[in-house]
Amino acid sequence: MFCQECHERPATLHFTKIVNGQKTEFHICEHCAKEKGEFLPGSNTFSIHQLLSGLLYGDPAISGTASPGLSQQSVLACPKCGMTYQQFAKIGRFGCSHCYEVFDSKLDPILKRVHGGNTKHEGKIPKRIGSGLQEKRELESLKKSMQQYILNEEFEKAAETRDKIRLLEKQKHQEKGE
Amino acid sequence: MSLEHFISEAISPWMKKEGPDSDIVLSSRIRLARNLENYNFPDFASREESETVIRKLHEANGDQEYGNWGKFEILSLDQLKPLAKRVLVEKHLISPHLAEQSKYGAVMLNADESVSIMINEEDHLRIQCLFAGFQLKEALKLAGELDDWLEEKVDYAFDEERGYLTSCPTNVGTGLRASVMMHLPALVLTKQISRIIPAINQLGLVVRGIYGEGTEAQGNVFQISNQITLGKSEEDIVEDLRGVVLQLIQQERAARNNLQQGLKIQLEDRIFRSYGVLANSRIIQSKEAAQCLSDVRLGIDLGVIQGISRSILNELMILTQPGFLQQYANEMLNPDERDILRATLIRERVELEEA
């Protein structure tokens, strides 16, 4: 079998692409594959970003603003790196960490879609820059459970939780006092 | 330690250690995506910004306190030849993205190659830890320590709500990708794998070939990893993956047992035929080599073939890829020449075992 690109060399690479149920087979030689940037294994793949941007474009809220006739007033852009929301929706990538803040109001539906309905970080907090956050999070969760105990009229447990909260807050003040 | 050292040996030192459940789980990997505050993400950064990021990492590395991982060597990608890059990709020390697309990419490697920190890939930092066998928790622990070590020295882009901020929204939150490489020949042979993969996908996990996204499984080796990085703790993500891997190990062992009981002679025939191909062929393509290596490795695991070390699969799978073959030959080879050299190398390696 000859390469379907150059029709000169024998085809040594054979792969099958399935896009939306449509099957396409490719038979090409090493040389043409290299030219197409397929020199490295795994590099010529339909990327997650293409997929993601497809999802983002499918979002009616975005396709509305994407229409060229619309006025410029709704252009949302990151002041730090210059990335506009439209660009972000197209490539599926943020330009800098600041973009998260700028596009924040639009992120929840996207994140829900990619992360199984989650929008809020529940994992590790960096030790140095996040010190204090850990305690804050613990306090919040304690306060939440105290409210729940009160609602359930489990006052003994609520009182226990209250004491824990007081202890934590006291520790916090002491640390600050030093 | 030099570049030579990283590209001349097919087997990274960490791979030589035998890990738990290594008859089925070839390796465990943890990857953490991290970015530095105040700099654009690598694909949108200026040359100056990218160089600053690399410089900061050089400074961090200059500090002489190392943990359980030893000293790092920092390699600049633009100083590597295409072949050297390819070899590093084949050893899974760098990603195809870093090798091909990153403008100012670099990588930090430790001596036993169990840690690789990619700089200016899709994110500023990609901390990767590789362990032999089924050791996800151990890999997570080491990655966490490295993360803490780096966080002492550089300012991470972190948000209370969204977690570690990454270039792609699919990595935000923990920035954690946990994956295991599994050899599942019996599940493939009994066609159970086609039922199992969709089930795994429904659990928020992804099954791929050995080179990540979009690649086909070669030699019955599958990579299984988490998809969701946000809204779960690192421990939960790893625990969920572990749970599925444990079940897969059981299923694969059960399938191997069934094959051995029901189709003993057919299975042995297949294993010894493949062994014959590896020991005798003069020309072999990578796909056939991968399939035969998988059969022989199964034969070793089942005790059908004796006196050959298990690591032969891992070693030859890497050694017989195009980059390594050319590295070994010390010249560029066309596909036909590679198929000949591949056959020679495999034959020599098998003979070495028999001696």
Automatic annotation (TrEMBL), chain A:
<dbReference type="InterPro" id="IPR025542">
    <property type="entry name" value="YacH"/>
</dbReference>
<dbReference type="Pfam" id="PF02151">
    <property type="entry name" value="UVR"/>
</dbReference>
<feature type="coiled-coil region">
    <location>
        <begin position="151"/>
        <end position="178"/>
    </location>
</feature>
<dbReference type="InterPro" id="IPR001943">
    <property type="entry name" value="UVR_dom"/>
</dbReference>
<keyword id="KW-0175">Coiled coil</keyword>
<protein>
    <submittedName>
        <fullName>UvrB/UvrC motif-containing protein</fullName>
    </submittedName>
</protein>
<dbReference type="InterPro" id="IPR036876">
    <property type="entry name" value="UVR_dom_sf"/>
</dbReference>
<feature type="domain" description="UVR">
    <location>
        <begin position="136"/>
        <end position="171"/>
    </location>
</feature>
From TrEMBL, chain B:
<feature type="binding site">
    <location>
        <begin position="177"/>
        <end position="181"/>
    </location>
    <ligand>
        <name>ATP</name>
    </ligand>
</feature>
<dbReference type="InterPro" id="IPR022414">
    <property type="entry name" value="ATP-guanido_PTrfase_cat"/>
</dbReference>
<dbReference type="GO" id="GO:1990424">
    <property type="term" value="F:protein arginine kinase activity"/>
</dbReference>
<dbReference type="InterPro" id="IPR023660">
    <property type="entry name" value="Arg_Kinase"/>
</dbReference>
<feature type="binding site">
    <location>
        <begin position="27"/>
        <end position="31"/>
    </location>
    <ligand>
        <name>ATP</name>
    </ligand>
</feature>
<keyword id="KW-0808">Transferase</keyword>
<protein>
    <recommendedName>
        <fullName>Protein-arginine kinase</fullName>
        <ecNumber>2.7.14.1</ecNumber>
    </recommendedName>
</protein>
<dbReference type="InterPro" id="IPR014746">
    <property type="entry name" value="Gln_synth/guanido_kin_cat_dom"/>
</dbReference>
<comment type="function">
    <text>Catalyzes the specific phosphorylation of arginine residues in proteins.</text>
</comment>
<keyword id="KW-0067">ATP-binding</keyword>
<feature type="binding site">
    <location>
        <position position="92"/>
    </location>
    <ligand>
        <name>ATP</name>
    </ligand>
</feature>
<feature type="binding site">
    <location>
        <position position="126"/>
    </location>
    <ligand>
        <name>ATP</name>
    </ligand>
</feature>
<keyword id="KW-0418">Kinase</keyword>
<keyword id="KW-0547">Nucleotide-binding</keyword>
<comment type="similarity">
    <text>Belongs to the ATP:guanido phosphotransferase family.</text>
</comment>
<dbReference type="Pfam" id="PF00217">
    <property type="entry name" value="ATP-gua_Ptrans"/>
</dbReference>
<feature type="short sequence motif" description="RDXXRA motif of the pArg binding pocket involved in allosteric regulation">
    <location>
        <begin position="338"/>
        <end position="343"/>
    </location>
</feature>
<feature type="domain" description="Phosphagen kinase C-terminal">
    <location>
        <begin position="24"/>
        <end position="255"/>
    </location>
</feature>
<dbReference type="InterPro" id="IPR000749">
    <property type="entry name" value="ATP-guanido_PTrfase"/>
</dbReference>
<keyword id="KW-0021">Allosteric enzyme</keyword>
<feature type="binding site">
    <location>
        <begin position="208"/>
        <end position="213"/>
    </location>
    <ligand>
        <name>ATP</name>
    </ligand>
</feature>
<dbReference type="InterPro" id="IPR022415">
    <property type="entry name" value="ATP-guanido_PTrfase_AS"/>
</dbReference>
